[in-house]
Structures are given as structure tokens and as C-alpha cells.
Amino acid sequence: MTTSIDSTITEDLVAKTAKPRKFEGLGRGLTFERFFSKEGVHPFDEIEWETRDAIIGNEKGENVFEQRGVEFPTFWSQTATNVVVSKYFRGHLDSPDREHSLKQLISRVADTITGWGLKQNYFTTSQDAAVFNAELTSLLVNQKLAFNSPVWFNVGVEKKPQASACFINSVEDTMESILGLAKTEGMLFKWGSGTGTNLSTIRSSREHLGGGGTASGPVSFMKGYDAFAGVIKSGGKTRRAAKMVILNAEHPDILEFVRSKSVEEKKAWALIDAGYDGGFNVPGGAYDSIFYQNANHSVRVSDAFMKAVEGNDTWSTKAVTDGRVVDTYNARELMSEIADSAWICGDPGMQYDTTINEWHTCPNTAPINASNPCSEYMFLDNSACNLASLNLRRFQDEAGDFDVESFKRAVQISVTAQEIIVDNAGYPTPAIEKNSHAFRPLGLGFANLGALLMSRGLAYDSEEGRGLAGAITAVMCGEAYAQSARISEQIGPFTGYPINEKPMLKVIQKHQAKVEEVGLPSSHPIVEGARESWAAAYEIGKRAGYRNSQVTVLAPTGTIGFMMDCDTTGVEPDIALIKYKKLVGGGYFKIVNQTVPQALERLGYAAEARKEIVDYLSTHDTIEGAPGLKDEHLPVFDCAFKPAQGLRSITPMGHVRMMAACQPFLSGAISKTVNMPHEATAEEISEIYVEAWRLGLKAIAIYRDGCKRTQPLSTSMDKTEEEKVVENVMAQVASGETFERRRRLPDERPSITHKFSISGHEGYITVGCFEDGQPGEIFITMSKEGSVVSGLMDAFATAISLCLQYGVPLSVLVDKFAHTRFEPSGFTNNPRIRIAKSVTDYIFRWLADKFMGEDSKGVYLNNQGSAWRPGETLGEGVEAAEEAAPKKVTLAQTKEEPTSKFEKARAGEVVYQANNNVFTLQADAPPCHVCGTIMVRSGACYKCSNCGATSGCS
């Protein structure tokens, strides 16, 4: 399946393999008309500007970045300001050469690109260049378009700036190539980019070396690559590098590869249980002491493998050197191994090789073997892609409808700008430079899809929502290829086009045919717009060729999503309906997502009804149960994660189906992780992987919430019981009923005292228990925090004690108060609660950990997972725990008698039983490497909502 592209693909190869076509009319250049800008008025002069300060604080209240007196448009948020100033402004702080205005940044980039275009004859006249510059400037300053981060970092600063974020490298079965890959990756990490490689060309550990002896195999070399990625900080900063490692399903070492990361994960668990720090990027900590933590892993599978899984047939691995059969497995059992490992640690993901190469525009050159770290860019080995994203919300008219013409014009400008960058950028290796010039792949995408759908009153997980998303993606890709063909008319096609002309036109026709399957009426304006764009793409391309081999992907848009003030990133739905906005002077305030009122208005709710629903949402942190909200409208407000007080969220298959709606209109693929609840089973993961293949996705990755042990999740009752309790309590509160019966504690009662420390702030929690071990009162003492804090905590504890005595379930209190955020916050001394977002967060997660174990009914769970009831000695509790601990189960036994959702035993593994619930945000998300704020997922990576940092390659 894997064949590396020759690094010398140039005009010489084209001349040897095909007779180049002659293209008429080359050299006239492109013409541009004004659409976003006005004649005689600079785009900067059309908007209002103000001077403000850019300050980013960390979780300790310290400023990690500060630049005062920066100039920004009034409609740009403080978060967008902070991100742009801290990430993209060039020059040393406090230096007179330091950029201090957004005008300088945008002009630096737009003017440089325009200047390059003029030198290379992209424009018919200088007036066309001026119009292009104004249009591009308008798109950028009005947050309709943003390039990937390397463009903002380097364009206009470096002579040959690195402008791409995505790279794919090859490796051959020689020691020179294997070690050379380590050097290439290291240089990419140094400059802040990510890279992916398929290691299937390396002979397996089951094969012999030419001079005798046995080969190490790719999994062994992965340890070295992983170590380099861990020590070479990305871009010279503190975040680790982004990297993808791929192995084909027929490689003899596939089982070792599949298990590699999950085996290391179990080592981390053992280290954490032994007292090692469970945080990320902690020197000497559990996760810093194991392998394979710096890369995403994916298994590359063919249709033949997936059909073998469906048919429960056998699957054979083959030697790399001579193709002989090495091992034969049951395909379904091998898929089960993949799903089991993903259940444990989130890896490996899946890449569907047959699908990928059926949509390949340049198969006559070489197959597609690999992807970038986030799996959205898939193309030839030794290639690179510069990305840009459009903010979909900025293309809605006053009525909220999507403006197709405006969107098309933006696509034309963006593709032209990205194309101009290709020849003027710098590349890390000669092979990547040659192939980038010869094939010129681009990666235009979009952001804010989730917010767009909600604003129009459409559920993310609905036929209508998927239809709109697919149609918009079709317009973007069709118009991008049409513009690429227009450029080709004037400049000429990419060098590798002549030998790939027939298959590329076939792929264009495949895209075009899919427009009729988007799920919207044929007469819908967006469908008509897509149909027109694809017709132009094919007709112009057929006679003039294409300037670019690829044009679209869907990237995670982490940092640039903040730059454009997007509510949602990439193809993602909204995370939650309640957002926290940063204040100029520091701190946060809670507001209802502004898309909610627009959605309610679109759905026909009157002003008074909208206010009541929004007020309810603001008070209860969930829209479920809001007065006057119709049940059929609840799906419109479903988000990626379940709110603490609610029961609804988008199902995993809802995410998969949305990806499937967009995939037919992308040159590349989609960076998105399908988030699964903590209680999801390995069997459910396997079903997701199979269904993603059936739906035509090119790649997929899952992440089961809480599989990392950086922070434990709060425990809860069985879901059906929890729903009943929450519904009963909410119904009583809503009806005005009171809890009249108070259950008082006996004069002598057992109690537990717990000492804690959060970022150096010490305190004590004392819990008094009823006769049955249920908590009935709580006392909170904070050391050295002053009388005001002590008084407030005492009053708060009294209120909670009364709630417990009047029958309010502890689960309801935990759901309400856990994960509240305020200072002090940060790392704790509790290995089971590594990071606390506030004192309240810590208290209630500790209460959940100690009193809400599955089937425990008031059992206190100690750190070893043992059971202790009031009156028992510690020794008795430990002995009871050992008696009750899950026994080791063999792989054969698990196949015959599958374990429950919450107790997975694979090949001797013992995991303590726990029935967990999912919080609004992933409980195991890492802290930001810049400011310490807990991050949230963005595609296959993480992003920080405080400072805009990302953990991936975007």
C-alpha cells in the first residue's frame, strides 16, 4: 500500500512521462473587482478603532504577557486582541520596532503577498493588484478570513518565510533514511510545525537484516522519534511538538504498534498509583516517564481489511522485504485490539487508505501514504500545505441567511493569496520544496459551523444541519477549484498536472456529482451556488488545467479561531451554551452564548419568551427545563458536552454523520476527534470505526473522556437513577415545594477530616456522617486566608449541610458546584485530583470521590480503591478491598464473557470499577503551557481559551 514519492519530481520527470500540453493565453494575469472594499476608501478607514491593553494572566494571578496601548477595531474582543498581540506581533517587547497596531500586522502580511504577486505577474494591471490588496485587507480586518499561524509569524519578516503548518515526510528502509527523518522532524518542530509519516516502509522486527541478525522494526524506532519530539519544544516554546505516526494493517508489527501506546498508558497508571505526579509536562512525572506520548497514532486500513472485519474473515500480515505471509489473524479480533487500545488511551485512530486514494488527484505520481498530525492534510510524501480558514458567521446577511456570493468572493481572494505564497515561502528540506512547487497543494477551510447552524435554528445532529454544512463545504471546494483553474488559465497548471490530468478531472467530476446528494432541496440557493461553482471548476479546468493539486481541508482552527472571534472551531459543534469572557483588566464574567437568542428568534419565540429562556439558562447553566421552550427545539441547543445540570449532548454518531456530510467536498480530510463519554465501551468504539468507513470518511479519531488519569472524574449514580433524582429536585424547586423533613445527625457521629492544598493555599474539610455513612454536614477551614474568606466558607458549608439534611442528593450538589472556576486554583497535593479550578471545585470533587462510588451507598473510597465504612480500621478496609478487587482476566476469557462498561480487563490488566459521568469539559484536559488555564479540545488537539495557545500544529 505504501510507495514513497521520488523527491526529484520536477519538470524533468514530467517531460519523460508525458507530452506537456500547451496552454493558451498565459501571462495575461488575473483581474479583480471590488466587493468587500470601496474605491478611494482604505478598509481600515471604514471601521472604528480604539487603543487598549493586551494582558494575559495565569492561574496564579500573575501576568505572563503584557503590552499596553495597542490599536484594534472596537468590535474585536479582548480575547482576540490578547491572542494576536501575544502570538503574532513582531519585535521585542518594549522595543520601538515592536508592532503596536493590528493595521501593521495585516498590512505586513497583505502587502507582502501583493508584492510577491506583482513580481510574478499574477495581476493584469497594477490596479488589479491594488484591488486585490484592498479586498484581502478587508477580509482580514473584518475577521472573515485568517491564514494559519506561520503566515502571521513569518510573512513580511523572513526573506523566505515558512508559511505552512502541515508537513508529510517519507522514510525508507535504510538506517541513513531512518536517522535522516529524525533530523527533518527536529527542524520542523523547532520552527513550530507538525509532521506525519507512514513507517510501513521499514522492515518489521520479524524480518532479518541483509548482513544477518533481526531488524529492530518501526515500533522500536518510534521510541527515538518520540524522545526527540519530547525534548525539542515546538517553535522554541514550551509546548511539545505535534506528530503523526502511521502503520499499515498488513505490516507484521501491526499488533505491537496497536498496543504500544496503551501498554505505556498502563505504566503511567502504575506510576500515578505509586505517587508520581500525573500532570502533563511535569519533569519526572508519570507521563513524562513513558514512551509514545508526543505523537498521534493511526492504523492505515484498506477496504479489504474492513470487509474482512464485516465478514469475520482472516487477515494476513506480509513481510516488507519479500511479501511473504508472516501472521494470520481474525480481522474482527484485530479490530477489537484497535478499539481496546483506543478505549484505554484514545489511540490509535483509523485512516481508510482505499477511500483516501480513490479521491486522490495525482495517483499517477504516487499514492497517498500519510497525513499531517491532525489528519486533515493528506497528500504525497515530502510535501507541505499552507492553510487558511473562513469565518462562516461573517457571511450571514441581516436576516441570518448565508450569503453565497459573498462567500464565493472570499474564496477567490483566499485561494489566490495562498497560491502566491507557495513559490515565495521557505521549506525545511529540498524534497519538500520541490514537491510543494510541483504540486502546490492548498488547505482552505472554515470555522464557526456549529454557531452558524444554531443561529439558524438547526440542530447539529439533524438532516437539515448536515445538509447545510455539506452544501457550504461544496461551495467552498467548488469555488476554490474554479479559482485554481482561472489562475491556471493565466499562469499555467501545476507541474505535476499533465501526467495526472485524467484522474484529476475524474475526481473533480466525483465531487461535482455529490452536490446532488447534499440533503437540501435542489432549488436551495446554496445548492445552486455549489452547482455553479463545480460546473465552472470542471469546464475551466478541462481546458486550462488547475494551478493546485488540492485546495481544501477542515483544520481545527485553534488560535486563528480566537483571532476571528469564532464561537466554534472547524467543523465542531458548540462546547457549551454558557461562555466565560475575559475582562480587559483580568478576570472573567459568565454570559449566555449570544447565538442562543438568535436561534430562539429564528425559531419564532417572542421577545419576552426569549428573555425568560435566556434568564433560565443563565441561572441553571442548562436550557433543559426552560419555561416555554418546546421539546422539539431542544436538539438545536445540544452541544458537544453535557452541562452539569442537564442530560443532553450530541451523540458520537452525530459527530461522525456531520463529518460524512462534509467529506465529499474536501480535497483532504477533517481534523476532528469524536468525543465519547467515559462509560463508552470498546465495542462502541469499534462500531464508530466501522461506520465511519461505511460513510466514506478518510480518517477518524476518538477520545473517551477521562481515559487519562491526570484528573479523576466525579462519580455519580446510574444514569437512569440520576435522571430521576435531578428531574424530581428540579420539579420541586420549580413548583415552589420545600423539603420539610430535616434529617438531623446524632449527637455522636463518625467524621472524616481531610487536609488539602491548592497552589499553596491550605485548608481542611471535615465531614460528619449519618449512621449509614451518608454525609450530613460539612465544615471548611482555610488556613491564613483572613476572616472574610473564613466567614464566607463557614456560611457556605452551613448552607450545604442544610441541603444534605433536607434531602438534596449529593450528586446534584456535585454537578452544580464541581468545575466552578475562581482563584485560588491550580495544582493540588491530592494525586486523585491533580488540578483544581477553585476551592469549591476541589471540595465537591473530593466529596464525589469519597461518597459516590458505584454501589457504595456512602462508602469512603481510599486512594487504593478500597472500601472503608465508619467504624472500620484502615487495615480492615485494605483487606476488604483486596478481597473485593477485580481479578485478572485473560484475553480469551474476555472474548467469551465481555466485561462491563466500567471494568475492562485486557491481557491481565486490572482497572478499578467506577461509574463515571461526563462534565461539561474534559476532566483530563491538560493545563495550558503558557498560562496554566485548563485547555479544551480543538479537533485532535487542545486550545487555551485564555491566551489562545494550542497543543497541535495549527
Give a structural overview.
This protein is of the alpha/beta class and 954 residues long. The chain has a domain at 731-853. The chain has 28 helices and 27 strands. Strands 3, 4, 5, 6, 7, 10, 13, 14, 17 and 18 form a 10-stranded mixed sheet that branches. It has a 3-stranded antiparallel sheet with strand order 19-20-21. The protein has a two-stranded antiparallel ribbon with strand order 1-2. Helix 12 (404-424) packs across helix 15 and helix 16 (501-514) packs antiparallel against helix 17 (525-544). Residues 4-20, 234-239, 711-727 and 854-921 have low confidence and may be disordered.
Name the structural class: alpha/beta
Main β-sheet description: 10 strands, mixed
Question: What's the number of extended β-strand segments?
Answer: 27
Overall pLDDT metric: 83
Poorly predicted spans: 4-20, 234-239, 711-727, 854-921
Rg is: 29 Å
Share in helix:
25-40%
Strand content: 5-15%
Number of helices: 28
Shape: globular
Gap between N and C termini, in Å?
29 Å
SSE layout and pairings?
Blueprint: H1 11-17, E1 49-57, E2 63-73, H2 78-88, H3 102-119, H4 126-141, E3 145-147, H5 149-154, E4 166-169, H6 175-190, E5 194-198, H7 218-231, E6 243-248, H8 254-273, E7 296-301, H9 303-310, E8 314-318, E9 325-330, H10 331-345, E10 349-352, H11 353-358, E11 370-371, E12 378-379, E13 383-391, H12 404-424, H13 430-439, E14 442-447, H14 449-455, H15 463-491, H16 501-514, H17 525-544, H18 558-563, E15 578-582, E16 588-592, H19 595-602, H20 607-620, H21 652-662, E17 673-676, H22 682-694, E18 699-704, H23 719-735, E19 751-758, E20 761-769, E21 775-782, H24 786-805, H25 810-817, E22 826-830, E23 833-836, H26 839-851, E24 860-861, E25 867-868, H27 874-884, H28 891-896, E26 936-938, E27 941-943
Parallel strand pairs: 4-5, 5-6, 6-7, 7-10, 13-14, 17-18
Antiparallel strand pairs: 1-2, 3-13, 4-13, 8-9, 10-18, 11-12, 15-16, 19-20, 20-21, 22-23, 24-25, 26-27
Helix pairs in contact: 3-4, 3-12, 4-12, 6-7, 8-10, 9-10, 10-22, 12-15, 14-19, 15-17, 15-21, 16-17, 19-20, 25-26
